[in-house]
Amino acid sequence: MPTYKAPVEDVSFLLNDVFQIDRYGNLPGFTDASADVREAILGEAAKLSEEVLQPLNRTGDLEGCKRNDDGSVTTPKGFKDAFKQVAEGGWLGLSAPTEFGGQGLPVTLSQAVNEFQISANMAFSMYGGLTMGATAALLVHGTPEQKKTYVPKMVAGEWTGTMNLTEPQCGTDLGLLRTKAVRQSDGSFKITGTKIFISAGEHDLAENIIHLVLARIEGAPAGIKGVSLFVVPKVLVNADGSLGQRNGVTCGSIEHKMGIHGNSTCVMNYDNATGWLIGEENKGMQGMFVMMNEARLGVAVQGLAQSEVAYQNAVAYARERLQGRSLTGVKEADKPADPIIVHPDVRRTLLTIRAFNEAARAMVVWTALKSDVAHRSNDPKDRQVADDHMGLMTPVLKGVLTDTGFANTVSAQQMFGGHGYIAEHGMEQFVRDARIAMIYEGANGIQALDLVGRKLPRDGGRAAMAFFGEVTAFAKEHGTEEAMKPFITPLSTALGHLQQATGWLMQNALTKPDNAGAAATDYMKLFGLVALGYMWAKMAKVAQDKAAAGTTPYLNTKLVTGRFFMERLLPETAVHLARIQTGSATTMELAAEAF
Amino acid sequence: MPTYKAPVEDVSFLLNDVFQIDRYGNLPGFTDASADVREAILGEAAKLSEEVLQPLNRTGDLEGCKRNDDGSVTTPKGFKDAFKQVAEGGWLGLSAPTEFGGQGLPVTLSQAVNEFQISANMAFSMYGGLTMGATAALLVHGTPEQKKTYVPKMVAGEWTGTMNLTEPQCGTDLGLLRTKAVRQSDGSFKITGTKIFISAGEHDLAENIIHLVLARIEGAPAGIKGVSLFVVPKVLVNADGSLGQRNGVTCGSIEHKMGIHGNSTCVMNYDNATGWLIGEENKGMQGMFVMMNEARLGVAVQGLAQSEVAYQNAVAYARERLQGRSLTGVKEADKPADPIIVHPDVRRTLLTIRAFNEAARAMVVWTALKSDVAHRSNDPKDRQVADDHMGLMTPVLKGVLTDTGFANTVSAQQMFGGHGYIAEHGMEQFVRDARIAMIYEGANGIQALDLVGRKLPRDGGRAAMAFFGEVTAFAKEHGTEEAMKPFITPLSTALGHLQQATGWLMQNALTKPDNAGAAATDYMKLFGLVALGYMWAKMAKVAQDKAAAGTTPYLNTKLVTGRFFMERLLPETAVHLARIQTGSATTMELAAEAF
User: Which residue intervals define the domain Acetyl-CoA dehydrogenase-like C-terminal in the entry (chains A, B) (predicted)?
Assistant: First the structure.
C-alpha cells in the first residue's frame, strides 16, 4: 500500500527562507499568517492529508463513483465523511475573503495545503478544488446577491461547485458550443443542452451543487462572442437561503475513464434548467478565465503533487527491495542482496524526480505569492508586475509541471519493476491519475500556444523582459561567488538559450505564425527549465547562507539535488532551442492526407 | 472505436528496397520467401490482424481474464476462436523449422507479421509470443525427445508455452529464487514453489500449456550458479503423445494490473509438479537467455506496434476533429472549424511519432535479418558479425523502442484532448498496454546496464566498432551527395557524440563502475538515436534513388518524415552526451537516508 508524508519542512523553507513571506506583512491576511500560524496550519494539513485522505486514495480508485438509477451519484466509501472533515476544518475557505466566511489567508499558503491534499488523494481533492474555482469566478463577476447566496455556503463546503464548458463537439474551441439559454420574464434564463467531462458534476458530498455553465443566449452572435456564463444550482435556493425545488439539471452518466475514478466525471444534461447570468451578456469567457487561471495553477500543482507522492513511494521501495549487488562491491553483506538504491541508475531516476519536485514547488510558491500581491496590494505598480508574472507563468506552470509530473510518476513506477504494473502498490494509479492533468483546463499544447501567441507578446513583451531581467540581475549579483558558480554558470547558459529562442520568435514568427506554432511546445519547456533553474539558484543561495551558519542534512540534500538539476536537467534547453530554430517548414510540408 | 491498418507498404519497402532481402537467397528459407510469397503473407497477416484480432482488443480489455473456482481461466470472448484461426493459419510456425511442422521462413518476415498482430491486439498476441519464445528455448537446449514431444504441438498452436522466472522476492536478481526441484529415481524432478507475473500462465485457448520453469535442484550452489531450467507441462504427456494426468501446477490468482487485461498474468503454484531438466544442471540461465533474446526483440516490437496503432488513430482523429482555425487563415470555410491537423503543434506531435515508428521498424527488420544470418548462414564470419550485432542491438531495441513507444502512445492520446482520457476511443488502453513493455523481459534500466556493462566491452568492443565503422562508411560514401546532406550531416554529428560518449566510458568507467551505471540509460538512448538516424539515412538514400525514377506520395512522405527526424529528434544526442560526461559524483553523493 502506498504511503505519503507531507513535505512540511520543504514548504517552510520556501515560505520562511527563500521567499521570506514575512516581508509581505503589508498585504491583507499576511500578518495573520505569521510563522507560528503557518507552522500550525501546515502541520494540521499534513495530518489531515496523511491520515484521512491518503487512506481513501486506493479504495476510491477501486470502488469508483456509481450513478444510481435515480440519477444520483454515490462516491466511494469514506469520501463523504472525509469531505465533512475538510469542510468543517475550514480548509476550503483558507484563503477566501473573511466577509464570506473564509479565513482570508494568503493563497501562497493555501496552495501548499492544496499540494498535500492532492498528493494524498487527487480524485477527492477535486471536489473542493472545483468549488474554490467556482467561488473565485462568483467573487469577481457575480452580483452582490449572487455572492451572498452562494459563496458562504461554498466556502463552508456545504455546497460544491463545477465548471461546465465542454460539449461533445467542442472543448478547446468554445465558440462552437450549442447549449442555449432562453431569457425569462423574471430575468432568469432557461438553460438546455449537454455538457461532458464535468468533474464533480453530481455526488453525495454536499446538499447542493452550484454549476457555472457556458451557454448561448438566443439571438446571440455566433462564435465565442455570443457565449455567456450562468449560475445554475442543482437545487434552487429560496429567498431566505433555504433549499427549494430541484432544478432541471441531471447527471446522464459517469464517464469511463483512465483514472481519477474517485471523482465523478459526469455527462450533465440541462433541460430547461433555471439559471442566472453571471457578469455581462456575451462575455461569458471573462468569468471563465477567472476560474481558469485559478484552476490552471491548481492543475499545475496536481502534476507536482502526483510526482511527489510517486517519488516518496519509489524511494521507500528502493530502500527496501533487495536485488543484486552494488557495482562497487557488496554493501549489505548480512542480507541476501543490496537494496536497489545502491545502483546509480536508480539514484539518477530518483534524483531526476526530486530535483524537479523541489524546484516546481518553489515555482508554485513564487507564483502564488504573485497572485496574492496582484489581488491584495495597494500599489498599482506592484499589482501590475505581479499580474504580468501570473499571466506569463500560468501556462508554463500548467504545461511543464503536468508534463514532467506525469513523466515522473512513470519513472517512479519503473523503480518497482513488475510490482509497479500491478495495482497493489498503487504506483499505476498515480500514473493514471496524473495523466489527466496534461489534458484538462486547456491541453498542454494550448498552454504552449497561449504562452507564445498571447502571454509573450502582450504589452511589448513586458512580462518576459521582467523575468529575464530578474534572472540576469540574480546571476550578476551572485556570479562571482565561488560556491554559486555551479548554479549561476548553467543558469546563465540556459537563460541565453531562452533569450535566443525569444529573439528567433520575434524575427520569424510575427510574419509567419506557423513558426510560432511549431516552436510553441519547445518554447514552453525551455521557459519552464529556465524558471526551474532560477528557482534552484535562489534556493541554493539561501541554503548556502544557512549552511554557513551550521549545515543540516536537509540543507546538504538540497544543495546536492540542486547541483543534479544543473548538471543533468537544465542542459536540455539546448535541444529545445535547436528544435525551435528549425522552424516550421518540414513540419508543415505534408498534405493532411499524407499522414 | 479504434481502428488499425497494417503498414504493409512500409514493410515491403524495407524488405524489398532498403534491406533487399532477395540478396540472401543462399540462406535456408529465404528462397521460399520470394517477393510474391512475402506480399501474399503480409497481405494475409494484415487481414487477420485488422479483421479478426483488432476487433477483440477493446472488448478483451473490458472483459479481462477470469479465474474460475476450479482454477481454470476463461479468456475474453472471441479469443479462443481467434487463437484457433491463428494456429490453423500456421502463423505461430512461420519461421519455425520445417522438421517440426513450421514453415522455416525468415524471422525477418515473422517479426513483421508480429508487429501487425501486436498493433491489433497486444494482450492476445502474447499467448502466441510466449509460445514461440518457449519453443526457441526447447529447440536450442531440449533433448531430441523433448523437442519431439513438445515442439510440433507448440508450433501448431495446439499447446502454448510460458516462461516462469519471477518470484515475489526476485525478478532481476534470479539468483535469489527459491522454487525447488527434487530429483526422482526416474530422472524427472518434483518442482515446488510460487512464480508470479506469469503471462499466459493459465487459459482456455489450448489443451496444454508447456511451462518453462527456473528452479533450484536440492543441494545446488547458492545464487545464479545453482539455477536450472525445467519443462513442466500443465497436463502430462503420455509416451504415445496423448495427454495424460493433470500435473501439480495451478493458477493461484490473476494479477490485477494496469493493462494487457486480455492476457492472463498469473500467480502459478507448483506443488510437487513433475518436470524434466532442459539443458545442463545448474545452467538454467543459458536456456533462459535464448528465450530472453527472442523475447526482448518481441517486446521491442510491442513498443513500436503500440506506437504505430496509437499514431494511426491520432491521425484519424486529427483529420476529423473540427476545432479552432488555422493560424494562417481559415482552411475549410464550409465547416464550423478547421480539422486540428492544420495546427503545427499537432503535426509536430504526429511527425515525432511517425518519424520514430518508421525508423524503429527499419531497425527491427535490420536486426531480425541479422538474426536470420546468425542462425542460418554457413559462413562463420558472417554468423559472428550478425551475432555481434544481435547482442549489441537487443538491449538498445528493447529499451529505446519501448520507452519511446510508450511516450508516443501518451502523445497520441494527447491529440484527443479529454476524449483520449475516456475509454471509448481506446487511446488510454494503448497507453496502459504499452507501459508493461518498459518493465518486463528486463526493465529498461537493466537493458541499459546490459549494454554498457556487457555488450559494449565484449570482445574488446568489436560489435560497437563494427557499427561505428558501418555508419562512418555510409556517411563517407554519401556525404558528398547534395540531396543526402540533410541526412548525413546530422548523422555524423550524432555519431560523433556517440563515439565521444564511448571514449568517455572507456576512460572513466573501467576504474569507476558507478560512472557506467550513472551513464547507462543516457548511453542507451544516445545509441538508439544514432541507430535510428542511420536507419533514416539508409531509407532516405533508397527513397531518393527510387524517387529519381518517379516519385510517389509514399516516397515524398518518407523523405519529409526523415528530415523531420534529423531536424527535431536526432539533436537530442547532445544532451545525452552532456549528461554522461557529468559522471556519477553528484548522483552518488547522498546517503540512502537522504532521499
Answer: 467-590
Q: What does the angle CA B116 – CA B542 – CA B390 come to, to the nearest 5 degrees?
A: 55
Compute the half-sphere exposure of residue B6: CA atoms within 13 Å on the CB side of its CA.
27
CATH code, B44: 1.10.540.10
Q: How far apart are CA A74 and CA A401, in angstroms?
A: 32
Q: Is B586 in Cβ contact with A560 (below 8 Å)?
A: yes
- CA dihedral of A67, A68, A69, A70, whole degrees rounded to 10: -100
A343 to chain B: closest CA residue:
B517
- Tens digit of pLDDT per residue, chain B (595 long)? 899 999 999 999 999 999 999 999 999 999 999 999 999 999 999 999 999 999 999 999 999 999 999 999 999 999 999 999 999 999 999 999 999 999 999 999 999 999 999 999 999 999 999 999 999 999 999 999 999 999 999 999 999 999 999 999 999 999 999 999 999 999 999 999 999 999 999 999 999 999 999 999 999 999 999 999 999 999 999 999 999 999 999 999 999 999 999 999 999 999 999 999 999 999 998 878 777 777 899 999 999 999 999 999 999 999 999 999 999 999 999 999 999 999 999 999 999 999 999 999 999 999 999 999 999 999 999 999 999 999 999 999 999 999 999 999 999 999 999 999 999 999 999 999 999 999 999 999 999 999 999 999 999 999 999 999 999 999 999 999 999 999 999 999 999 999 999 999 999 998 999 999 999 999 999 999 999 999 999 999 999 999 999 999 999 999 999 999 999 999 999 999 999 999 999 999 999 999 9
Write down the ipTM of this complex.
Answer: 0.97
Spatial separation of the C-alpha atoms in residues A23 and A334, rounded to whole Å? 53
Q: Which helix (H) or strand (E) holds B265?
A: strand B265-278
Same domain, A197 and A270: yes
- Residue A411 domain-assigned? no
Rounded to 10 deg, the angle between the B427-435 and B284-320 helix axes is 160
CATH number at residue B212: 2.40.110.20
Q: Which residue of A has its CA nearest to B562?
A: A586
Taking CB atoms and an 8 Å cutoff, what residues of chain A touch B435?
410, 413, 421, 428, 431
Nearest CB neighbour to A568, from listed B323, B556, B579: B579
Q: Are residues B134 and B217 in the same domain?
A: no
Å between A9 CA and nearest CA of chain B? 14
Contact B410 A435 (CB under 8 A): yes
Any domain includes A366: no
Does any domain span residue B22? yes
Q: Are residues A518 and A566 in the same domain?
A: yes
Cβ atoms of B147 and B181 within 8 Å: the answer is no
B146 and B174 share a domain?
A: no
CA dist list (Å): B340 to A457, A522, A553, B345, B444: 24, 19, 51, 9, 35
Which stretches does DSSP call E strand in B21-70?
A: 66-67
| Count of domains for chain B | 3
Same-domain status, B490 and B566:
yes
Catalytic residue numbers of B read 441
C-alpha B267/C-alpha B270 separation (Å) is: 10
Grid cell digits, residue B571: 539533436
Q: In whole angstroms, what is the distance from residue A395 CA to residue A442 CA?
A: 9
**CB contact, 8 Å: B331 with chain A?**
no
In a domain, residue B166? The reply is yes
Do residues B142 and B173 share a domain?
A: no
In terms of residue numbers, what domain contains A216? 160-283
Q: Which residues pair with A253 in a beta bridge?
A: A267
**For residues A370 and A383, is the Cβ–Cβ distance under 8 A?**
no
A235 neighbors A194 (Cβ within 8 angstroms): no
